Amino acid sequence: MASLRGIQQPELSKKLYKIIKSENHAIGAYETAARERLSIASQLSDWGEATGDDSISDISDKLGVLLSELGEQEDVFAQNLEEYRGVLKQIRNTESSVQPSRDHKSKVSDEIQKLKYKEPQSTKIVQLEQELVRAEAQNLVAEAQLTNITRQKLKEAYDLHFAATIERAEKQLILARHGRRLLNLLDDTPVVPGDTRPAFEHTHQARQVLNDAEEDLREWQPSLEPIPSSATEMGSNLMPTSPTSTAAPSVTGHPERQGMFTEGESPTHTRAGGVQMFGAQEGPHQADQLESGERRDMSGSSATEQTTYTT
């Protein structure tokens, strides 16, 4: 059915439809990577316990906690990409609604040319020319609406995309650095047969590494270059509310993204069910609000049709 919907897409929206479809596959890959990372973290913790080496057992367990958090970051990134994808759908839906206006104008123009060739004296030519004037006026409005929404939503979509990419990268960096701290606590000095390794003396320090990772993620704040936008001057009909307005462009911003720990909680882990994550996770973005069933208003003098999608 997915390929059939692609065939049925209006010509104007086919390219963006393919992009949105491809992004859906990419998001699925990130979600799969998140699940696999969580599974690997649990396996690492179980393996460390099975070695019978207290040092390896403690370090591998805590490494599993950090790796699990890395997996959770992949899942959060996938959710943020879904929000970006939903914004692209608004452009696609607008493109689809403009296509009938273009087709109608082209059809009337073709009919006039055919009639002038076959029946140059036909009175219907005048009627068609009047209809062409109306069609061109309607299409002019629709094209203006399309370029307005395309520019606005393209900036908004990739602002979301790059902000999510930066968040994921910076939080992964935090977790990776603390993971390297854990490795420094493991003594890998060779022993000769018969020697007994000293007991692991860094349990408290290893625990502190997790505490530090929790605090760093909780205190993480986005530091993004503002992206100015003048789209606040656009009305609900996708046209400027005040063509002569000289108001300064607004700046695109995002709500502060919460850290991956709940304040007051300490990182915990358990052998029973594999690795348990740090604090509670931030709730997923409600990208479904932007899903393809949403209709884009093309009111005013435009006669464009509204198209809905489920993909």
What do you see in this structure?
This protein has 311 residues and is mainly α. Helix content is 60%, strand content 2%. It is built from five helices and two strands; from the N terminus they run αααααββ. The chain has helices at 2-8, 14-50, 54-118, 124-183, 203-219, and strands spanning 227-229, 250-252. Strands 1-2 form a two-stranded antiparallel sheet. Helix 2 (14-50) packs antiparallel against helix 3 (54-118) and helix 3 (54-118) runs parallel beside helix 5. The protein is elongated and about 110 Å long. The N and C termini lie close together (10 Å). Residues 244-248, 255-275 and 279-311 have low confidence and may be disordered.
Give the strand content.
Answer: under 5%
Uncertain spans, ≥5 residues at pLDDT below 50? 244-248, 255-275, 279-311
Terminal CA distance: 10 Å
The number of helices is 5
Classification by helices and strands: mainly alpha
Please state how the strands of the largest beta sheet are arranged side by side. Answer: 1-2
Mean pLDDT: 79
Report the C-alpha radius of gyration, rounded: 29 Å
DSSP E strands, number: 2
Helix-strand pattern? HHHHHEE
**Largest sheet descriptor:** 2 strands, antiparallel
Instruction: Please tell me what the overall shape is.
Output: elongated
Approximate helicity band: 55-70%
